[in-house]
Amino acid sequence: MSATPMDAAGAEPVAFPQPESSDIGTPFWASLKQGKLSFQRCQSCGKAWLPARHQCPGCLSPNWQREESKGQARLISWVVYHVAYHPAFANRLPYTVAVVELDEGPRMITNLIHTEAHSLQLDQRLWLVIEDEQGVAVPRFEPHPPGAGMTAKAQA
Ligand SMILES: [Zn+2]
């Protein structure tokens, strides 16, 4: 491997960090490439969760199934990053990292896009956007329904 991460002043783009490969996690990333956000649900107690794991975090049952999210969520918490902790993110500052809760139950850490941090509100509705990052399909959320884009300011 000759690829070397550059610092913030580097001229070459830095490789986007790749998801860790694991038997349990790979289907999550594979489904994102097909435009679907999947999660696991326990067949014993009904709990649904992310990220992928072999046993239910509620009752430790290994009896679960994958389900597909409809891609709607609400905002639980967020923080605005002004420091890049990986060089691949240096030119994105500031960016917003959030915890969102899918309507189906699982909570996940994600990025919020197409929004300003000062306009965010607890519990606000969010919609899934799957973006391509150098071949990795990454789930992010925005405050507009699909297709609404940035045109919501027209009424101001
Ligand atoms: Zn369970």
3D architecture notes:
This protein has 156 residues and is mainly beta. It has one domain (26-145): Beta Barrel (OB fold (Dihydrolipoamide Acetyltransferase, E2P)), CATH 2.40.50. The chain contains one helix and eight strands. It has one helix spanning 26-33, and strands at residues 38-42, 48-49, 64-68, 72-81, 95-102, 107-112, 125-133, 136-142. The strands form two sheets. The chain has a five-stranded mixed beta barrel with strand order 4-5-6-8-7. It has a three-stranded antiparallel beta sheet with strand order 2-1-3. The longest helix is centred in the N-terminal third of the chain and has 8 residues, at 26-33. It starts with 25 loop residues before the first helix and ends in a 14-residue tail after the last strand. 15% of the residues are buried. Bound molecules: zinc ion (ZN).
Break the fold down into its secondary structure elements and pairings.
Layout: H1 26-33, E1 38-42, E2 48-49, E3 64-68, E4 72-81, E5 95-102, E6 107-112, E7 125-133, E8 136-142
Parallel strand pairs: 6-8
Antiparallel strand pairs: 1-2, 1-3, 4-5, 4-7, 5-6, 7-8
